Amino acid sequence: MAGRILAPALCALALAFTPAAAQAATCVVGTGGTYLTIGAALADKACTDIQVRPGSYREAPLTLARDDTTISATPGTVTVLSTAGATVLTVSGDDDTVRGLTIAGATAVRITGARGVLDRVGATGTTTAVDITGPAAKVLRSLLAGGDATSDALLVRATGTANRAASADSTIFAAGASGAGVRARSETASSGDVAVTLVHATIAGSQRAALLEPASRTDVRAQRSIVHGTLGGMTVDASTDTTTPDEQLFRGVTGRDFRLRADAPVIDKGGAIGATESDTDVEGEQRLFGPATDLGADEFVNHAPNPALAVNRPRPRQNSVVRFDASASVDPEAGYGGGLARFEWDFGDGTTETTTTPAIDHSYPETGPYAVTVQVFDAQGAAATSTPLTVRVRDGLPPTLRFIHPHPSATMLGSVRRRFSGVASDRNGIRAVYLSLRQTKLSNGRRPRGRCRYINPRTRRYVYRSCTRPLFFRVKHRKGRWSYDTRGRFFFRPGRWQATIKATDKTGNHGSRTVKFAVR
Asked: Using CA atoms, how far apart are residues 302 and 305, in angstroms rounded to an integer?
């Protein structure tokens, strides 16, 4: 259950981390290290800098009793579970630091020594995530979660006559549904007072934000925070958000992911960073991103979209329509208030266009290669430009065709030799030229019934065939001129005729031209 509660948010805590400078003795725990268990390293009194390699460790209850000792790991890579109930890790030494570990148990961490520090720790407890009885403890950039419905995230107690104070900065408190995010308790009538100070804290996921026992001798204060649930005597400053619905603030309330949405109204509402405050947030990202800090533990850092550009025809012809598509572009924050807002297209031919949709059509009047890009903007204004996509435009212009003989609407004798000629040229060269001769009206002015009448020069006869399948025959072509001579092989019957010339250039473009004439 502990792993299920921590998983959504702790994945984001896996950041690059540089451990503190090596102390007198550095001991490495894990495969290939000095020790295989954390308990073994703690038993070696010479180990004051214990570095834990990635992995899952099932340990007997651990106690850090030495002073000035650090246990560290890269955040999100080490999980520590107890083989027995009760407390997983007790920090009883003074000035000790636990950094980067994910710990789960009945009570994940108990701090009884002075000035203990938890930094980038993920703690889940079925009773209490973190229990503090020592003086001047600090919780920094951590996630404290309740592992059961009644469990608290943080408990700070005065068990003796001395007063107790604790502070937390950039930390998420996610207690069980009926637990308390922060519980402050003076144990007996003779116990000291308890004071807890929170800055840039997020308390959410439970009915009670805080519980002060008794209120007369306990004090919990939050500033520039998000505090949801009954305050229970907690004091919050004017900037702290207590009313905005969780769904408008957090990425995944159901999954207990209390990082901020891209459109959360608490962004840039936290003012400047205080002199003694953390300059990074719960995820280890910079605390100030924008004109001011955000309220709560998480500083929303907008990431630029990942652009993707595709084209349906990478080798189009001139003047043909090409579709460019950037719909595969992704905004990392699209699922929680972000999303793609606009697309700025550069077609590589000196023309640009802006759209709010991810696809666009374009055509190129000239041949050549063109480097096309799209700059994708998200709803928060971040932008990224795609890798140039090269489109190679091929010749798309049909051959130039013209009749020299006959002239349009000319009248000629059908009983004499006739020459048909004209122009057929193209910058890429002509592959072939074909001619079709069709009678459209008889001498009496009627149209041939049924199918169309064509001349077949091979058989020297008229043939009838579908008008949608005209009869063409190849003609001579040289140096941009085409020609066909009847040479007396056949004669044209009187009536109306049309001659159609068609040609194909060497890149596959087709062209045609028709001329009408009369025969008597």
From this structure: 9
Q: What is the value of pTM for the model shown?
A: 0.76
Q: What is the mean pLDDT of each run of 10 residues along the chain (520 residues)?
A: 40 38 76 96 96 97 97 97 89 98 97 98 97 98 96 97 97 97 96 98 97 96 97 96 96 94 97 95 95 97 97 95 98 95 98 98 96 97 97 94 94 85 94 95 82 88 88 95 85 92 94 95
Query: What is the DSSP secondary structure assignment for residue 300, as one 8-state letter?
Result: P
* Cα–Cα distance for residue pair 244/263, rounded to 1 Å: 12
3-class DSSP assignment, residue 247: helix
29, with CB counted inside 10 A (0-12, 13-18, 19+), is: buried
Task: Report phi then psi at 4, rounded to 5.
Answer: -65, -35
275-291 as b/e: b if 16+ CB within 10 A: eeebebbbbbeebbbee
**Which residues 6+ apart lie within 8 Å of 348 measured at CB?**
370, 371, 372, 373, 388, 391
Tell me the β-bridge partners of 389. Answer: 372
Residue 235 and residue 242: Cα distance in Å, rounded?
A: 11
The domains of the chain, with CATH numbers, are: 2-260 (2.160.20.10), 310-393 (2.60.40.10), 400-519 (2.60.40.10)
CA end-to-end distance (rounded Å), the chain: 101
**Number of helical (H) and strand (E) elements in the chain, helices listed first:** 3, 44
Q: Cβ distance 95 to 121 under 8 Å?
A: no
CB neighbours of residue 233 within 10 Å: 16
